[in-house]
Design a protein that fits this description.
The protein is α/β, with parallel strands linked by helices. It has helices spanning 3-12, 19-28, 42-51, 124-138, 157-168, 191-197, 212-218, 227-241, 259-271, 294-306, and strands at residues 58-64, 71-76, 82-90, 93-97, 101-103, 118-121, 142-147, 180-184, 202-206, 246-251, 275-280, 311-313. It has ten helices and twelve strands. The longest helix has 15 residues, at 124-138. The protein is globular, with a radius of gyration of 21 Å. The structure holds S-adenosyl-L-homocysteine.
Length: 337
């Protein structure tokens, strides 16, 4: 609950609404019982216990990368489903990569998260718990959030927005919108709705191909929408919010990594002043794709740079624990630690 909702609830219980702020602060610190809220009277704590439930996630499995210290968690949700969350350490701060759905229905041909389809969207409290439980369990202060785990955030729009309001609240985790990235496969019909909220987060668009033929083959979400519609939606988003979009582009050998692809990608990126983030394709056992060769990547980058496009290559983190982009997947809750 947001503090103002807590205040209303307290009022209707005959309690002082200003207590909401105290309670909300405790919640953001990740307390797991009302008894830990020591600045509340015993009688209020009892009343709260009778009226409310404190949500949390149960740790099923923790894997730590030997290569770079990246941590992957498997959490059990209250209904017995399970999701993965990744904590990455960067020089500029620790970043948590959270899942927004149990499974995914977008069907991207290179991604493990969509294998087995969608079970349900996560509640805002469950996404918040991914952040708070990761922070508490790892002992690391989280300063950045990326919605780049399992699921399509724009396919769970209302809960994602509510989560963002909760995690961004100054009396809560207080993570600034500029420290949050939301990644989408391009559900263009939601872009204007998101732009209207004018959140100052970074919108990352999983482009992965600049033409309809290649993109529709890799990403079913492109069918019935199309690259032109997507770039138009990006342009409107950029105009409305003033926030530069980032294009994610997984480099797949012989599929989307030719000079022609690079030239067309450069055109799109320039039109909307997008930053291009190249991702060397990560291995997914069930998928037949291979990463682009270093030579092809170099040539690709060269074309983008010569066209004046801002381009970076995403570091591969947590590869030895299958925590890299596209490797997170729906797992059964049987994975006990
Ligand atoms: N559904 C959202 C959020 C997922 S974010 C989206 O599509 O953007 C995860 C990112 O990793 C996406 O850009 C996704 O396309 C990319 N990805 C998926 N499989 C990958 C793989 N095997 N190698 C590299 N990146 C991959």
């Amino acid at each position: 609950m947001l503090p103002e909702e807590l205040a209303d609830a307290l009022r209707s219980m005959g309690e002082q609404p200003y207590r909401a702020k105290q309670i909300f602060r405790w919640l953001a610190r990740g307390v797991t019982s009302f008894d830990e809220m020591t600045d509340l009277s015993k009688s209020l704590r009892e009343k709260l216990r009778a009226e409310f439930e404190l949500s949390t996630l149960r740790l099923l499995r923790k894997q730590v990368s030997k290569l770079d210290g990246t941590i992957k968690y498997l959490w059990e949700l209250p209904d017995g489903n399970a999701v993965e969350t990744v904590v990455m350490r960067y020089r500029h701060g620790n970043t948590v990569c959270i899942s927004s759905q149990v499974g995914c229905r977008q069907g991207c041909a290179f991604c493990a998260s969509t294998i087995g389809g969608l079970v349900r969207g996560l509640e805002s409290s469950e996404m918040l718990d991914e952040v708070l439980c990761s922070e508490r369990e790892s002992g690391l202060k989280i300063s950045n959030i990326v919605l780049m785990g399992i699921g399509e955030p724009l396919d769970n729009f209302d809960n994602v927005i509510r989560f963002l309001r909760l995690v961004n609240h100054p009396d809560g985790a207080n993570i600034g919108m500029r420290h949050i990235s939301l990644s989408t496969c391009g559900l263009t019909e939601m872009f204007d709705k998101l732009a209207d909220l004018n959140l100052q987060l970074t919108l990352s668009v999983s482009l992965h191909a600049p033409d309809d033929e290649t993109r529709s083959r890799l990403m079913p979400a492109n069918r019935g929408r199309g690259v032109a519609q997507l770039i138009d939606a990006c342009e409107r988003y950029y105009e409305k919010t003033g926030r530069r979009i980032s294009f994610e582009y997984a480099m797949i050998d012989g599929v989307n990594d030719t000079p022609d692809h690079a030239r067309l990608l450069a055109q799109h990126a320039r039109r909307v002043s997008a930053h291009v983030n190249l991702i060397p394709l990560n291995h997914v056992e069930e998928r037949d794709f291979a990463p682009s060769t270093p030579e092809h990547m170099r040539a690709f980058i060269r074309i983008l740079e010569d066209a004046g496009v801002n381009v970076t290559v995403r570091r591969r983190l947590g590869g030895d624990v299958e925590a890299s982009c596209g490797q997170l997947r729906k797992k059964a809750a049987e994975h006990r630690i």
